[in-house]
Amino acid sequence: MRLDPGVQDLAGERPQVDGAATQRRLSGKVAVVTGSSRGIGKAIARALAAEGASMAVHYCKGREHADQLAAEFERGGSRVGVFHADVARPEDCHRLLEQAAKQLGSVDILVNNAGINRDRSIRKMSASEWDEVIHTNLDSVFHCTKAVLEPMIGRGWGRIINIASIIGQTGAFGQANYAAAKAGVIAFTKSVAQEVAKFGVTVNAICPGFVDTDMVASMPQAAKEAVKGRIPLGRFGEADEVARLVRFLCTEGDWITGAQLNINGGQYM
């Protein structure tokens, strides 16, 4: 059933994980995952849909990827909407969450995952390269959180999960903009968690290390081997591993808030 030109209401068989039906612990919940048409966001959306959540699939570029994921959810029985927004723009953040709530119901779970990188040494970095990363990776977390917080407080339940990065903890050559944004996400998480815990809303940050996504795949082979050499477990992470941590926070993490959870193969402890 078509809800509007940018939103689909989809139904079908229940989702499967590893070929087996799962207990749907998020049935009745509505989840928004920014940047969910590919990479880590896509894996997170799959994990939450498999638990029965109604899913808002968000994309900025590449509508076809979002539609493919929605079709997958259609076969799995999830109610889903497809939404376009440039989260670097405050008005788009608010519109995204307003449309998701209008079409799917009040948002119970927000995963602030969308992010970009514009790597360059600080001596060569332009003001626009700084601003673009800060607006997308940090400012969007503020605006999207603001858009869902009051309804969550009113219902006495909410889960906000911010995808930060190991780079926000360690810094990295050529990534001053990215590191500053992700460090800001961690500090934002801790502050908001203190403000809203009494209302039954938890706020946590996940700090992935190097995960095997398109971004890592584009690295030169020599660079990838050098990074692996600094990871005690000797490999890159998988997007599904990050997704399972998000799922845990949503389904079993009732007494976890204000945390920065490292998932990096031991690269930063």
CATH architecture assignment name: 3-Layer(aba) Sandwich
Structural class: alpha/beta
The total count of helices amounts to 9
How much β-strand is present in the residues? 15-25%
Envelope shape: globular
CATH secondary-structure class: Alpha Beta
Per CATH, the superfamily is NAD(P)-binding Rossmann-like Domain
What's the main sheet like? 7 strands, parallel
CATH fold name, please? Rossmann fold
**Order of secondary-structure elements:** EEEEEHEHEHEHEHHEHHHE
Descriptive overview:
- This protein is an alpha/beta fold and 269 residues long.
- It has a single domain, classed as 3-Layer(aba) Sandwich (Rossmann fold).
- 45% of the residues lie in helices and 17% in strands.
- It contains nine helices and eleven strands.
- Strands 7-6-5-8-9-10-11 form a seven-stranded parallel β-sheet, with helices on both faces.
- The longest helix has 29 residues, at 127-155.
Spell out the blueprint of helices and strands.
Layout: E1 2-4, E2 7-8, E3 16-17, E4 20-21, E5 30-33, H1 39-50, E6 54-59, H2 63-76, E7 80-84, H3 90-104, E8 109-112, H4 127-155, E9 158-163, H5 167-170, H6 176-196, E10 201-208, H7 214-217, H8 221-228, H9 239-251, E11 260-263
Parallel strand pairs: 5-6, 5-8, 6-7, 8-9, 9-10, 10-11
Antiparallel strand pairs: 1-2, 3-4
Helix pairs in contact: 1-9, 3-4, 4-6
How would you summarize this macromolecular structure in one to three sentences?
With 269 residues, this protein is α/β, with parallel strands linked by helices. The protein contains nine helices and eleven strands.
